Amino acid sequence: MADRSDTRDVVALILQDHRRMEDLFRLMRSVEADRAAALQEFAHLLIAHALAEEAKVYPALKRFKKIEDEEVEHGEEEHEEGNKALLELLEVDEVGSEEWDEKLEELVEAVAHHTDEEERTILNGARENVAMERREELGEAFLEERERQLKADCGAVDNVRRIVHS
Q1: 51-75, pLDDT tens digit by residue?
Q2: How far apart are CA 11 and CA 71, in angstroms?
Q3: How far apart are the C-alpha atoms of 147 and 110, rounded to whole Å?
Q4: Distance of CA 136 to CAs 57, 63, 87, 141, Å?
Q5: CA dist 155 to 16, 49, 63, 108, Å?
Q6: 5 falls in which pLDDT band (50, 70, 90)?
Q7: For 139, what's the count of Cα atoms within 13 Å in the CB-facing half-sphere?
Q8: How many CB atoms lie within 10 A of CB 3?
Q9: What is the pTM of this model?
Q10: Would you tell me how many other CB atoms lie within 10 Å of the CB of residue 111?
Q11: Which of 22, 136, 147, 155 is the most buried (most CB within 10 A)?
């Protein structure tokens, strides 16, 4: 997955991932698209994105005291909900079946709720209160961790299962 811009601002990078997730939802809903491939890309992106946020971004924002701890903890809880919904979709045998469509909508709902809330609280707070230099350092750390997770095949169903059940 190539980065779509040269920015290192962690806020912009997270927003780019959110927009890509929305694109992938559209593909997963489309009967003309390779829905299985879109799901694979989505699974890897969601897991890498969430793990990178939890490892590099959320703890730093908590340390800067720029973001309410409760907002960060809530974000982590919502990652868990998204991961569970993702696992349920990955475990459906037939792409495009009624069950698949149902589980896809549950995933869309969980992730859209989280990204919307994260953008309004955590990311707006970071944009207003964290200096660009610091946001770029966080962006570097976020990208590095995200890349490490992607290389480790983080969205594979066995790994998602391990994350959900740990």
Answers
A1: 999 999 999 888 876 567 788 888 8
A2: 16
A3: 24
A4: 11, 16, 32, 9
A5: 19, 11, 29, 16
A6: low
A7: 24
A8: 13
A9: 0.93
A10: 25
A11: 155
